[in-house]
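for the record, two folds in this file. i put them one after another cuz i was lazy. first one right below, seq on top, structure tokens after. the second one comes after a little note so u can tell where it starts
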Amino acid sequence: MAEPRAERPYMPGYGVDTPSWAPLPWSWAAERLTANRNFWVVTVSADGRPHALPVWGVWDDDDGGFAFSCAPRARKARNLAGNPRTVIMVDDTVECLSVEGRAAPIHGDERRAQWIERYLAKYRLTYPDLSRDFLAQNLMVEFQPERAFAVIEREEEFSTRATRWVFDT
């Protein structure tokens, strides 16, 4: 994956236009996405109704994407069928990170197997009963990022480190 371009976010009235502003490196974001256990996933139905729930998921920085699993008839799955726009967020409210993009079910067997193996590698150490068969019965959803946004909710870092990244799509 090509590293996304870092920018100063447009946040009038929040003080991020200071001369001491310096973007966070993408490695800061990738580290949090890789290590995070629970993610918030926000989907929106075709008629605009938002839906947010936590999920387990896997970020792969080399691949430049994220995947999670859900039941084939889950509201997330129904929403994605009508509107692929999605936001994923880490569960940290101090070092906040959200990523906007598009998500869709994975249909190719090889691609599904690749993400299932990544999922098992991440979660099986903590949950040894997690099985390949269980994941294969569910929908695997792949997320492609378009932009990301980070804010550190510590006074000394808020105005100097808020960062937006833009991915080449």
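(here's the note) second protein begins now
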Amino acid sequence: MTLRRPFVADHFHDLPGFVEARHGHNWEIAATVRLTESADHHAEAVFADSLDTWVATLDYTLLNEQPSLDGRNPTAESLASWAFHYLKAEGLNPECVRIREKANYWAGCRSAV
């Protein structure tokens, strides 16, 4: 099952060779989790609730101030990894998490096969 959620957040980059002023994006997450064939409506609701909770954590925030990104550059790649591991910690079985930062720019994190 794949769910998508939009969110808005600012970030900036201040690393050697990668400096950008604070700016914002209309981001989107597309997360796919594997549900068992016998999964019921409750399993789908748990997935939706978990994804909504993750989005609420960073919607309308400055990503550089997120404790889960401490010491990391707040890129789409970092967000995809964070969301993937968050869903896994919630007891879900994520297959792929993709984050859209710009119209044609996506970054993803997949499970190892």
